[in-house]
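Q: I have two molecules that I believe assemble together. Could you output structure tokens for the complex as a whole instead of separate predictions?
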Amino acid sequence: MENPGLAHKATNITAVEHIVSPGVRYQRNGHTGAVVWFTGLSASGKSTLAMRLERQLFNKGYQVYVLDGDNVRHGLNSDLGFNPEDRAENIRRIGEVAALFANAGLIVITAFISPYRADRQRARDAAGSAFHEVFIRAGTDTCEARDPKGLYRKARAGLIPEFTGISAPYEVPESPECIIDTAVNDIEACDRLLLDYVESSVALGDTAELTASVR
Amino acid sequence: MENPGLAHKATNITAVEHIVSPGVRYQRNGHTGAVVWFTGLSASGKSTLAMRLERQLFNKGYQVYVLDGDNVRHGLNSDLGFNPEDRAENIRRIGEVAALFANAGLIVITAFISPYRADRQRARDAAGSAFHEVFIRAGTDTCEARDPKGLYRKARAGLIPEFTGISAPYEVPESPECIIDTAVNDIEACDRLLLDYVESSVALGDTAELTASVR
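A: Yes, here they are, computed for all two components at once.
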């Protein structure tokens, strides 16, 4: 038995430690869990690059998942609005959930503006050494010129209050683990830079090939 | 390219669909994602059996993770207390996070008393057909006789208000997908019943062996 101290009568069931440790997950998956935390302005390219990085990593055999507005705002954080407290709580929960995914052995990529340093620091604290801050860099001018959803236009018209980069601050990362400049690089170059960063930063297993067999 | 409609200049980056679908995760992992939702009284055996089921499934090659008080109450739900509203919110968030894990292709086992039908129904709604309610059954008498943490004793002494089974109700599942009676079965029998249930309920891939190679 894995846990010789565990009583074998149901009448003695007590709480036990997690038996499947991060170490054995690492051995199984061939890589450690990680939080790859994208931050940047609206229209900087976070969601697009997150999805493409997910696909690249998945195709290479990594266990990977993206947390973004689509799957978080309508579910876990559906009770939150856009006032300052709710925005902070939104990022806090995402940081905690990302840490759980990393603990489960996955590489989780998060794609949220997350404009405040304090909020990002809290996400880093939740995940510890598994945390990687990736600054998806493009200036307000560039992002406003893209404006794929017309949000900047609405913000300029005063229809969206506290819009990051227009009427609310974006606090540039001071020492991100990685910077991807989407104003300079085309999308394939961004893909390559991101893949290179993750592959060089996430610890890989010794074996070149791993077998996960379901019997 | 997977997404021929995607613009190839960074200046045209727009939001894209999740490219790694549940279907391709299923093909990779050899099984679908699932939420295996344990419910039952304190000391019914939920956490112990959840950890042991996680180990059994992991050893057979499944991607599996346990959400329990240890990894949720101190992080994601650290802002919540034990009043009725906070208890409901606690379970709501766990249901949403569990649904995210299932969406990411994992079998996630949750080990929480979750005494109210309405709260469990909400968790089911979040995960859809991936949801499996497992009633870890042991009566109050049995659980109180075990009382590994002395909680029932404290509750009887009035030191813990609204303690499920003593001073707060436990709403028995009306149609759970699985019932595990820990008052009758010893722990190994419970292990076998749970493994059999999951293996017969979670869709498996066609291939007997799957290879996940990290290059």
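A: One point stands out. DSSP finds eight helices and six strands in chain A.
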